[in-house]
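User: For a benchmark we're assembling, each entry needs the component sequences followed by a predicted structure for the full assembly. Here are entry 17's components. Please fill in the structure.
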Amino acid sequence: MKYIEEFQDPLLAERLLEDIHATVTRPWALMEVCGGQTHSIIRHGIDQLLPEEVELIHGPGCPVCVTPLELIDKALEIASRPEVIFCSFGDMLRVPGTGRDLFQVRSEGGDVRVVYSPLDALTLARENPDREVVFFGIGFETTAPPNAMAVHQAARLGLRNFSLLVSHVRVPPAIEAIMRSPDCRVRAFLAAGHVCSVMGTEEYPALAERHEVPIVVTGFEPLDILEGVRRAVRQLEAGRHTVENAYPRAVVAQGNPAARAMLDEVFSTTDRGWRGIGVIPDSGWRLAPRYREYDAEHRFSVEGITTREPAACRSGEVLQGLLKPHECEAFGTTCTPRTPLGATMVSSEGACAAYYLYRRLGGTTDAPLEASIR
Amino acid sequence: MCLAVPGKVLRIEERDGTRMASVDFGGVVKEVCLEYVPDLRVGEYTIVHVGFALQRLDEESARQTLELFENLGLLEEEFGDPWQAAEDAQRADDAQQEVRL
Ligand code: SF4
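Assistant: Structure for entry 17:
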């Protein structure tokens, strides 16, 4: 398939690796922001091909992982109501709330449906005028425009039985928060390519300047990731810190103007809590006041929900790059994709799940993974 | 969920006032909303995420990137700025010195 296989070519990967090996002279820690990139890195073993000086730290860019527990509990509460058809992307089903997940709500009689696109939820709303259709709208800047379009279309079509349970998050404020952390070891960022396909690169030069950190917009195939690393290492070794676009086939500086206009129309920025990390100022979107009637939290008044995270789960440290998944005591023992303690073990983009799936035990244990799956 | 994948536009049509396309992902065909990339044409490639085209994939730019990878190292020797190269080498040397010290 075009644009995939070409960017997996092992001979070209060799060239990129040679260049990185020839350039690097001292240790550097790079963070790939996006969970999709984490998955690709672990799957293709890219981190193991890099010189030992280059360490890849996995960032918080897995939307499933950072959606606050409180919002999961609100979703569970709304999905349990008899009048509701609750629509979600598939990977939210097993995300643990306080005590249960959407999968369990469904087995207890809740009408929970997995959809591919938010437009599928709109179709359900049209076909079921006597039911309330709620779409679980989470995700980064890539997922926000589709969800914004669904709300916009609902308004255009006068669909009053559709609403969005929304918790969108944005990458640049997360980068800011990571750089401000006193424990921060990150010296360069591989920015998430598809986030930039939508938003462009305008927000990044100020960040690169303020924190003197190179930011390289990076794609998802193995060669894309190697090129992102190569450019970041070149900048670091030369003492530079600029924004570079290593994914020009899908990213232009101004992003997607139509999508950005729709985001401005439907959402306003807000502080957001990130699961395992805490509140980051201005780091997310909520529905703009003029679309308030499409806000599920407002429509179902699910305030006053209290939450509790399992104490054993260290996903907050994993999400900030302070801990590698296999360093968590629960990894692969009490915490597996079948019995996840934290959201990072659920989604395939979560760092814990990626390590589990590709058997990265980091030499800390010899126990066969199957032994822990009963 | 966050993943977006490239696909090829097979057919475009207007449905309920919305621009939609059939997009082929290596054999799997899905319906995709084109509202955000309205000038996409049949035969072009696009990045698709949860049923929405988010950006056109630029064939020319993809070709250039691959070419750059192919010429890596070679180009630098041929056309690189010798002063910059010398400076980089000096820096690398200095850095190595630091490490040794
Ligand atoms: S392995 Fe499980 S318990 Fe440990 S940080 Fe990851 S999700 Fe949390």
